[in-house]
Amino acid sequence: MTGLNRPARLNRALLGLSGLTLLAAGGFALGTYSGKLTWIDRSGPLLPENPPTWALYTTAAVAIVLGLLALRWLLAQLAQKPKTHTWRYESDPAAGRTELAASTAVAPFAEEVSAYAGVHSARATLAGPRHAPTLAVIIRAHDSGDLSAIRDRLDTEAVPRLRQALDLDTLPLTVEYRFTAAAGERVR
Length: 188
Hints:
By secondary structure, the chain is of the alpha+beta class. Helix content is 47%, strand content 18%.
């Protein structure tokens, strides 16, 4: 997990903790049901006859909070996108500076990749500051698209051209491929 950022490490840690908690609860329930846990009467009631009112309200509040946290986590997974920056080019601060939004810088790149054979659409995000940028590309390719040819064109044409335009020595790249049905095919 050395290459993961802090939110990703926290995300994995919380998922692992949730999984272990659910495994323990399941093991406890199976042990009780099978009679392996002798210190619990398996024929006894789960709750007392009339639990206190505060216990019911507390249980409902905890369930609502956990449900909202789970919903927030799910929405965060859908909307996860690297943080972009505005790059500043200043060789002589007295003469002025040029600012370039990262989204503006990658728009021609995404258009170029979208025109490749086998590509339905492409979306690119340039994240990080100018001294340590990262390019994340999501390519929606047709089922019949040649992924190795697309990746080869990325590595030999599109990324070097973007690096040259942005005056960068290196530009780390991550590519995510998503598949779409071939043009014209529809499911009815």
